[in-house]
Design a protein that fits this description.
Blueprint: H1 2-13, H2 25-42, H3 44-83, H4 88-102, H5 106-128, H6 131-134, H7 140-166, H8 169-177, H9 182-212, H10 224-235, H11 238-269
Helix pairs in contact: 2-3, 2-11, 3-4, 3-7, 3-10, 3-11, 4-7, 5-7, 7-9, 8-9, 9-11, 10-11
């Protein structure tokens, strides 16, 4: 009896073994990578030449996406706080920004920032006699980042607003009763809880932004899509070119999705 009791105590005190399941999305990611490697090895011309030609465009796509997304987080944070602000003026400005920007297609916004905004600045320079403004020349990448930031900032503002409103009102009341100011309560109590709730939505916004970054190709940004269009125009192999462009985008989006999923699991485990 004593031996049996000791065995049962050892079983009770032994650590529980948790089986870790590999994210099935990784299989698809490696399958796409394998297809690209297979095409490059078996048919270096044209696929290896394509990747060499696309290399600069891939880095431009990553740079534009990451830079825009960092700025989108800031715009979305302030926009979301403005949407739930008790000040009618701030709330009205934030609401107007969100409603107007969401009502205009992203492609139209990019065209506005690249073509219309420089023309407006030049016109102001001619009216005011400012030579620097009248000779203003825009930078395609900068205008693309501005357009993506303003456009996606409106959607991110709604995501942040929803996250803030998902936190029970009692949390704010309890924080204020402890002597915290409104901004201290937002920073230390409300926003940390809200961002855990909206983390999946933020990850989806990043993936969508990565795909929509292909729109910047229409405003003279040499991203992956534009490089693909140039290669296709030079070599007249439309099927191979756009198949490779699609595969490269798929690799980037699948990898981003896996990183987002990993971040979500880490966040849940820390709760």
């Amino acid at each position: 009896m004593a031996k049996q009791q000791k065995k049962s105590e050892i079983k009770e005190n032994s650590p529980i073994k948790v089986k870790r399941h590999i994210d099935s999305g990784w299989y698809l990611f490696f399958a796409v990578v394998f297809i690209i490697v297979f095409l490059v090895i078996t048919q270096p011309d044209p696929y290896l030449n394509m990747l060499r030609f696309f290399k600069e465009g891939i880095w431009v796509t990553i740079y534009v996406t990451v830079t825009s997304f960092i700025l989108v987080l800031f715009v979305g944070l302030f926009g979301g706080l403005g949407r739930v602000s008790g000040n009618k003026v701030i709330r009205g400005i934030a609401t107007t920004y969100v409603e107007v920007i969401r009502g205009i297609p992203l492609l139209v916004q990019l065209l506005f920032w690249y073509f219309a905004m420089p023309a407006l600045i030049q016109q102001i320079g001619r009216v005011t006699g400012n030579e620097a403004l009248s000779n203003y020349q825009t930078n395609a990448i900068v205008m693309a980042i501005v357009g993506l930031t303003i456009g996606y900032g409106a959607y991110m503002s709604e995501v942040v607003r929803a996250g803030i409103q998902s936190v029970p009102k009692g949390q704010m009341e309890a924080a204020r009763s402890l002597g915290l100011t409104y901004f201290q309560a937002m920073r230390h109590i409300i926003l940390p809880q809200a961002f855990r709730v909206i983390l999946p939505a933020i990850g989806n916004e990043f993936i969508t932004l990565l795909k929509d970054s292909s729109l910047v190709s229409v405003v003279a940004v040499a991203d992956l899509t534009r490089r693909g269009r140039e290669y296709s125009a030079i070599h007249f192999n439309t099927l191979q070119t756009w198949s490779m462009v699609a595969l490269v985008y798929l690799v980037m989006t699948l990898l981003s999705a896996r990183l987002v999923a990993y971040t979500e699991r880490r966040t849940k485990s820390e709760r």
